[in-house]
Specification:
The complex is a heterotrimer.
Chain A: H1 2-26, H2 43-48, H3 52-85, H4 91-97, H5 100-103, H6 106-119, H7 126-152, H8 155-162, H9 167-196, H10 199-204, H11 212-222, H12 227-250
Helix pairs in contact in A: 1-12, 3-7, 3-9, 3-11, 7-9, 8-9
Chain B: H1 2-33, H2 50-57, H3 59-92, H4 96-107, H5 114-125, H6 130-138, H7 151-175, H8 179-187, H9 192-220, H10 224-230, H11 237-246, H12 251-282
Helix pairs in contact in B: 1-12, 2-3, 3-7, 3-9, 5-7, 5-10, 7-9, 7-10, 9-12, 11-12
Chain C: H1 2-19, E1 26-31, H2 40-50, E2 53-58, H3 62-71, E3 78-82, H4 83-91, E4 95-96, H5 111-114, E5 120-121, E6 124-125, E7 128-140, E8 163-166, H6 169-180, H7 190-199, E9 204-208, H8 211-220, E10 225-229, H9 230-238, E11 244-247, E12 253-263, H10 269-280, H11 282-291, E13 296-297, H12 300-305, H13 311-314, H14 319-322, E14 325-327, H15 333-350
Parallel strand pairs in C: 1-2, 1-3, 8-9, 8-10, 12-14
Antiparallel strand pairs in C: 3-12, 4-12, 5-6, 7-10, 7-11, 7-12, 7-13
Chain lengths: 256, 283, 352
């Protein structure tokens, strides 16, 4: 049974990674039209260093994702705490109101933000992008931290309170540490949601302020070379490093 | 009193953000959906229901909506069928040290940028692509594999893109299951299948449902994967709506179609709500 | 924990700096990708002479171009507008009049294009005629023999599942109209056009929506015959060395000419004029056509400087050929929406 499970998991991983590997390998093909057979070359990585457009978009994407992660995780953790530790009238309603960013296809959220900013005369770009990204990440962070809260249970907190700890102490020294895997998961998820976010960024990006997914899509639609593969390869390796760093800190795999 | 202040303080920021980012824009778009044309510069639009009427009168929009829903269901089903067992395997069949590594490997595709993953599939699926050439290499008489620009390609691409969501969601639910429950059941002589059916499945169901919602909704509004992988077969309601905003500049029509899509989504979620309630009671 | 936060903060600051908008003076151009204005040597030459960085944004259709202009006021300096859309841009207040005195090469332009009514309104000039060409189809000469000569051939069984078609409503309707012998600029029987396009379904292997896609598909052998533009065919042959030939069919082809315009709130109108002047001049054009491949020039002098066997001089300069072209006229909104609807219906019907 265990063996079966491992084999299945291995197959799933192959499925998940095969196209990514193909994409990375094609980054080293000299032909600008992706013609086979392969001619190994590093020219696209070199060309990338001059591609101000892509580099700038990458910077925007990363910065935006970090900001989103920070804001969304903070707001989400606060809200999750309210839901888990208090019962109040309107709680059900608030929980339902958290659904729209998940319940509504991103296409609609993106276009309505476009319409809204257009209507009230706000320019698109960084502020609009941040507003959209955090809004998208919020429900996920609330759910993820909330899921952890539901599992952690109140016994420890009750015990601490029983031993005389004040509410702030309970929060800092009992609740939050127990929540750490959930918070870390939420932060990582929010980063991923923002970094990978294409739809909302597509409608809210302005000429000169674009994110990497939007630039890549534009390139695919209008004309691209393996430079796109090159930058994607770099981004994957970079995020691998980032993810390993986060994992080192927060031990994803395990604590029950 | 302190309680209420605490609640306000805890939930306030998040909901204020949502108000500005989601609810107000939706209202703006509702207003746009009843305008005759995009209000721009020297145009003077009037109120009209013509766009909603267009949906009812022209079958093309309805057909495209159906297609989107169908693709959504297909993708969600595949993600559930593959993702749940994978999450189960991850939480039970992999020893502690490795679990972290494998978990990271599963989550990493999030970071690889959905667009490039999608476009990588074009290199794998098309005639002369990796799949075709690989098959030819193993079995020289094989028929040509040309999956690109078909509905299947779109489904494959979407499953690939959203599978990590399902695995993650199910894993979070399954991982919290108490070992002792399982040990007790096995100790009482329950078979693997019974343990799965009566323990894993019900206990993991919240994760499954959450994952399904996380997947179904973006998929039915998807336009990027259908465009890149689907070609003509990739015309779905999402691409039509996107066209209105980036090409034809008929924002009111796009807004109206968006709201119709939204109504369908809400309907489905409302139907799924009792299911969710029952799950909450169980767990 | 603290040191990690510090590191993250520093990294964030660095990345945000990278993500910031460049501060050097920029000339922003809106055009098709690979359509001359973004040639590295052209951009460099202009940058050297005027000390300004030329930055591009691209579109895949005239519709998208108009939408970009509408939703980004005060952003673009130069925009390429197909002459059949110039009037619409004027009536929407999207572009400003040009000053011919600031265009030293203006008098060299062919009079019929230079003074064409599509580019003028209220006695003012709104677009500088730049290039012109035809829309029909191109074939892979290595795979297709004999080379067809009619539009009707696109429906021939030998091209079943081998045809590439541009995903564009207006172009599709106009090509079908030509094939049916209707007036492409005011077709009389849209139902017949719709039926003819649906009949094209089994022929179509893939739709394409950018020149880059066209090149990649043709190179990969995805299609052997596909609708295309004359200038792009020249570029695909020369710059990408694809074995193709452009065909101007007997029934006729779509003719078009493009003008360079300046949007209404352009940040740098002076520089915009300078760039346009450079583009319509012979120095730019001859290098563009001989090194890369381009549509036919509006500049008579430039045409004369091309080698005698150049496609643009030999074929496009031949009146017998150009007589078969029907030039695109402006399309009123309502009719265009009808075309868009028709095309959506055709696509929905074609899909496997």
């Amino acid at each position: 049974m265990i063996l079966l499970g491992r084999v299945f998991l291995a197959l799933v991983l192959v499925f998940l990674y095969a196209p990514i590997v193909v994409m990375m390998v094609m980054a080293f093909n000299a032909s600008p039209l992706y013609q086979l057979p392969m001619e190994w070359s590093g020219r696209w990585f070199v060309a990338l260093m001059d591609n101000r457009r892509l580099l700038s978009a990458s910077g925007t994407s990363v910065g935006l994702a970090l900001a989103t992660s920070l804001i969304a995780t903070s707001l989400g953790t606060l809200a999750a705490l309210a839901f888990a530790r208090y019962t109040f009238r309107g709680r059900r309603l608030l929980q339902i109101l958290l659904l729209p960013p998940i319940a509504i296809p991103w296409l609609i959220i993106g276009t309505s933000l476009l319409v809204f900013t257009f209507w009230i005369g706000l320019p698109r770009g960084w502020p609009a992008l941040l507003v959209g990204h955090v809004a998208l990440a919020l429900p996920y962070t609330v759910i993820l931290v909330g899921a952890r809260l539901a599992v952690v249970g109140v016994e420890l907190e009750d015990a601490a309170r029983g031993l005389g700890a004040g509410p702030w102490q309970v929060l800092w020294r009992v609740t939050l540490p127990g929540l750490l895997p959930g918070i870390a998961a939420a932060a990582a998820f929010a980063f991923a949601v923002s970094f990978d976010q294409f739809v909302i960024s597509y409608f809210l990006a302005a000429p000169g302020t674009s994110t990497l997914p939007v630039e890549i899509y534009s390139a695919i639609r209008k004309g691209f070379t393996p430079e796109i593969n090159a930058i994607s390869t770099l981004i994957i390796l970079l995020s691998m490093a980032l993810l390993l760093m986060v994992a080192r800190l927060y031990r994803f795999g395990g604590s029950r | 009193m302190r309680c209420r202040l605490a609640i306000l303080g805890l939930t306030g920021p998040a909901y204020l953000w949502l108000l500005v980012a989601v609810f107000l824009p939706l209202t703006a778009m509702l207003y746009f959906s009843v305008l005759s044309e995009t209000p721009l510069g020297n145009r003077e639009p009037v109120l009209t229901g013509e766009h909603y009427r267009a949906f009812l009168e022209k079958s093309v929009y309805r057909d495209l909506l159906w297609r989107s829903l169908g693709i959504g269901l297909e993708v969600t089903a595949f993600c559930a069928l593959i993702g749940f067992p994978a999450a189960l395997a991850l939480s039970r069949a992999v020893p502690g040290r490795w679990r972290e590594v494998v978990f990271l490997l599963v989550v990493l595709p999030f970071w690889s940028n959905g667009l490039v993953r999608t476009f990588s599939w074009t290199m794998v699926l098309g005639a002369g692509g990796v799949l075709d050439r690989g098959l030819q290499a193993l079995w020289p008489d094989a028929p040509e594999v040309d999956l690109l620009f078909t509905r299947q390609a779109v489904v494959i691409g979407l499953v690939h893109a959203y599978l990590p969501y399902m695995i993650l969601s199910c894993y979070l639910a399954l991982q919290a299951v108490d070992d002792s429950l399982i040990l007790a059941a096995r100790g009482l002589g329950a078979s693997h299948w019974t343990v799965f059916r009566r323990l894993w499945l019900p206990l993991g169901l919240p994760g499954l449902v959450a994952g399904s919602v996380l997947i179904f909704v973006p998929v039915i509004g998807a336009f990027m994967e259908p465009r890149i992988l689907g070609g003509p077969a990739g015309t779905v309601i999402g691409t039509v709506i996107e066209d209105q905003f980036t090409q034809t500049f008929n924002w009111p029509l796009g807004a109206a179609l968006s709201f119709i899509l939204l109504a369908v989504v809400l309907l489905i979620l409302l139907l799924a709500y009792p299911l969710r309630q029952r799950l909450e009671r169980v767990t | 924990m603290i040191s990690t936060m510090q590191r993250l903060g520093a990294g964030l600051a660095l990345l945000l700096a990278l993500g910031g908008v460049a501060t050097a003076q920029q000339l922003r151009v809106l055009n098709w990708q690979g359509y001359g204005t973004d040639e590295p040597w052209a951009v460099e030459a202009f940058a050297e002479e005027h000390g300004v960085e030329v930055v591009h944004d691209y579109f895949n259709s005239e519709q998208e171009m108009l939408t970009r202009l509408r939703t980004n006021p005060g952003v673009y300096d130069v925009v390429l507008i197909n002459s059949s859309y110039t009037q619409q841009a004027v009536s929407e207040g999207l572009i400003q009049p040009l000053n011919p005195d600031q265009l030293s090469h203006f008098e060299q332009l062919d009079q019929s294009l230079r003074d064409h009514p599509y580019l003028r309104a209220d006695g003012e000039l709104y677009g500088a005629a730049w290039v012109w060409g035809a829309t029909a189809y191109a074939v892979n000469v290595n795979e297709v023999t004999p080379i067809p000569t009619t539009l009707e051939a696109l429906w021939a069984p030998r091209f079943s599942d081998r045809l590439g078609w541009r995903d564009d409503a207006v172009e599709s309707v106009q090509l079908a109209a030509l094939a049916l012998g209707q007036d492409m600029n005011s077709p009389t029987d849209l139902d017949a056009i719709k039926a003819r396009l649906i009949a094209l379904g089994p022929q179509i292997r893939t739709f394409w929506s950018s020149e880059d896609q066209w090149n990649k598909y043709m190179a990969a052998g995805r299609f052997d015959i596909a609708t295309y533009w004359s200038g792009s065919a020249a570029r695909s042959r020369k710059a990408f060395e694809l074995p193709i030939r452009f065909v101007i069919p007997e029934e006729g082809a779509i003719g078009w000419f493009d003008g360079l315009s300046i949007p209404v709130d352009a940040p740098n109108p002076e520089l915009a004029h300078a760039f346009i002047d450079y583009l319509i001049g012979p120095a730019f054009y001859v290098r563009w056509d001989t090194e890369v491949g381009a549509p036919a020039p509006a500049n008579r002098g430039a045409m004369a400087e091309l080698p005698e066997d150049a496609f643009n001089r030999a074929v496009m300069g031949d009146p017998a050929v150009t007589g078969r072209l029907t030039f695109m006229a402006p399309i009123p909104d309502q009719r265009r929406n009808r075309y868009l609807e028709l095309w959506q219906e055709v696509k929905a019907a074609i899909v496997q």
